[in-house]
From TrEMBL:
This is Acyl-CoA dehydrogenase. Residues 21-121 form the Acyl-CoA dehydrogenase/oxidase N-terminal domain. Keywords: FAD, Flavoprotein, Oxidoreductase. Residues 230-370 form the Acyl-CoA dehydrogenase/oxidase C-terminal domain.
Length: 377
């Protein structure tokens, strides 16, 4: 077992830092090597055909050995004491490999929700320690499409059904916001039914959760719960942009590689001017997406008051870039891009599903208009 990577704490800069530090590049190298070994394309495709898309060994290595699950958790609570910048690097690599792992939902959204409660002891702090070690996973029991600005309680009490909860089939704990407050509910507890749904993105399971007289551990009252849920969803939307960036980068890189190797009329198809223009245009989109995603991660990491605006801008732009890159990848691969054996379809499905997660691009454009005090589009 390798020791978790240690991250050096730095003082927040006065201006956004869009570059990657050496610590972040070291973390990237470790995560990329692990995913290349445990989550290559044939492995991921085979996992989507099984009843259990998650590989427990992969999650144990990513969360525990590398220490990725605890990046947002302070050291005093058992985490790495890093920031959203480092978590964004992990999500870039997970997007690049479309590996099935509950990182976004558990290590970002659920973790950030618990951190917003500010508890240094008690059940919330204990659960944070378990999430940081990777021993357990948790999900916020709201539909995956819920935007930060539209966060609201789906249930009045611990009774009823919530549909479209991402990663719920593999979660150990549900964080359930109700009109009474936030509760931690064991998925294996009495009165809890988790019904797997058929998702578009086969690498990220969805479920409908039904609570019938379930018993939960109270974590916060209604006001604190509402604030915590908004913060969790804001972090999720902001760092989802990094996953979308990873998707787009892989699609562009793979498409360029293929068009260099694929020959037609005795020359590489990538040498045709029309395809050069399409890939050059896509490269410009990816570069801009990287700037938007890094700005959102940096704003969240530094606690910038402009974080909601940075997140809205990143989501409004990056979701469309990921979908466009995946569509171009499928089309420019020709016939093989349409096959099940080639992983292009996994990226297209992930990009399409991500474009609705934590709010659509349209809802984020509306948020940009409101936050920047501009006329609505």
């Amino acid at each position: 077992m390798t020791a978790p990577i240690q991250i050096t704490a730095t003082q927040p800069p006065t201006t956004p830092d869009l570059l990657y530090s050496q610590d972040e590049e070291d973390l990237r190298s470790a995560v990329r090597a692990l995913l290349a070994d445990r989550a290559d394309a044939p492995t991921v495709i085979a996992a989507t055909e099984s009843d259990t898309p998650y590989d427990p060994r992969l999650w144990s290595s990513l969360a525990g050995d590398i220490g990725a699950a605890g990046l947002l958790v302070p050291e005093k609570l058992g985490g790495q004491g890093a920031s959203h910048r480092e978590a964004a690097v992990v999500l870039e690599e997970l997007g690049r490999s479309v590996a099935p792992a509950p990182y976004l939902t558990s290590s970002v959204v659920a973790t950030e929700t618990l951190l917003a409660l500010g508890a240094e002891d008690g059940p919330a702090a204990a659960l944070l320690g378990e999430l940081a070690s990777g021993a357990r996973t948790a999900v916020l029991a709201v539909p995956f499409a819920t935007p930060p600005a539209g966060a609201s309680t789906a249930l009045a009490a611990l009774d009823g059904t919530v549909r479209g909860i991402a990663d719920a089939p593999a979660a150990d704990v549900l964080l359930v916001p109700t009109d009474e407050g936030l509760y931690a509910v064991e998925t294996a507890g009495p009165g809890v039914t988790v019904e797997a749904l058929v998702p578009l993105d086969l690498t990220r399971p969805l479920a409908a959760v039904t609570l019938t007289g379930a018993v939960g551990t109270p974590l916060a009252d209604a006001d604190a719960s509402a604030t915590a849920v908004r913060r969790g969803l804001l972090a999720g939307a902001g760092l989802l942009a990094s996953e979308q960036l990873g998707i787009a980068e892989w699609c562009l890189t793979e498409t360029v590689r293929h068009t260099r190797e694929r020959h037609q009329f005795n020359r590489p198809v990538g040498s045709f001017q029309a395809l050069k223009h399409r890939m050059a245009h896509l490269w410009l989109e990816v570069v801009s997406a990287r700037a938007a995603a890094r700005n959102a991660a940096d704003a969240l990491a530094t606690g910038s008051p402009d974080a909601p605006l940075a997140v809205a801008v990143a989501q409004a732009y990056c979701s469309g870039v990921a979908v466009h890159a995946a569509e171009e990848c499928v089309q420019l691969h020709g016939g093989i891009g349409m096959t099940w054996e080639h992983p292009a379809h996994l990226y297209l499905k992930r990009a399409k599903a991500d474009s609705l997660a934590y709010g659509s691009a349209g809802s984020h454009r509306q948020a940009v208009a409101e936050l920047a005090e501009l006329p609505a589009p």
